[in-house]
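Field log, afternoon session.

UNIT: design team B
ACTIVITY: writing a sequence onto a fixed backbone
BACKBONE:
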């Protein structure tokens, strides 16, 4: 072995940077309806945010289906810009939504981006969109009632804080009206007993949600309400994420010791 080659090898060893880590990379195999099948990314975690390179810039995706040889991910941005062969990288971050008291009174999408034109939301914490729920043993019993303010419902159907209630009915029978009236009627309670209300619009027309917001503002209910909107014209991935985002916002206020009322309208479009 020549002296020059030995010197070159010594130089390479001395210049080795141990801080450089192997980057996990993958490639989009196929894409359709906002769902991408990706090869590679053997180290990806369930719920991890991925970055897909496109001609118009990087697009975020969320890993969901982890298989032996591929990953199923939902594209959170413009999936039409993603093509087969697009390069994909792991970010190491789990999907989260920014939360805080400043989100009250605002309209956001399932990623926490404001949609009401009132400027940036200054938040204090990020909550994971998917989180393991507390076990049944650790939960408190349902003891505090939630009054809807509608006499027929409150007299016939006992609803408690910490309870789920399903509203079923044909089209146009007033399911949304019951939910919105319930939010508005919480205004009659003292502030320290009033729950934070979260209205999650899944696959709804934005014009309908705008009318609902106007009604809530007119009645003064937006001062304790958050609207999470995944519009009918938005990617299907946002409709999928919307209920999870609503729960993540609710869990933040739950951890602050406050009661939360979440309305999902409606889960058949998730």
């Amino acid at each position: 072995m020549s002296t020059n080659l030995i010197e070159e090898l010594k130089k390479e060893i001395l210049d080795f940077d141990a801080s450089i880590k192997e980057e996990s990379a993958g490639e989009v195999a196929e894409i359709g309806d906002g769902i991408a099948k990706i090869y590679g990314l053997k180290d990806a975690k369930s719920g991890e945010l991925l970055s897909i390179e496109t001609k118009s810039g990087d697009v975020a995706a969320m890993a969901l289906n982890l298989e032996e040889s591929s990953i199923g991910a939902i594209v959170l941005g413009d999936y039409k810009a993603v093509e087969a062969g697009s390069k994909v990288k792991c970010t190491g971050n789990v999907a989260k939504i920014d939360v805080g008291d400043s989100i009250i009174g605002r309209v956001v999408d399932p990623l926490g981006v404001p949609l009401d034109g009132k400027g940036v939301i200054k938040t204090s914490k990020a909550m994971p969109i998917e989180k393991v729920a507390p076990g049944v043993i650790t939960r408190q019993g349902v003891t505090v009632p939630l009054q809807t303010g509608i006499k027929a419902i409150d007299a016939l159907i006992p609803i408690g804080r910490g309870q789920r209630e399903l509203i079923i009915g044909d089209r146009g029978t007033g399911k949304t009206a019951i939910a919105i009236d319930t939010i508005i009627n919480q205004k009659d309670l003292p502030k320290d007993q009033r729950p934070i209300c979260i209205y999650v619009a899944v696959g709804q027309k934005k014009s309908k949600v705008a009318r609902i917001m106007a009604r809530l503002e007119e009645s003064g209910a937006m001062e304790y309400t958050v609207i999470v909107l995944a519009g009918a014209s938005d990617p299907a991935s946002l409709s999928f994420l919307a209920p999870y985002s609503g729960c993540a916002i609710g869990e933040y206020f739950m951890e602050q010791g406050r009661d939360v009322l979440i309305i999902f309208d409606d889960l058949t479009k998730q």
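LOG NOTE: The radius of gyration is 24 Å.
NEXT ACTIVITY: expression trials, pending approval
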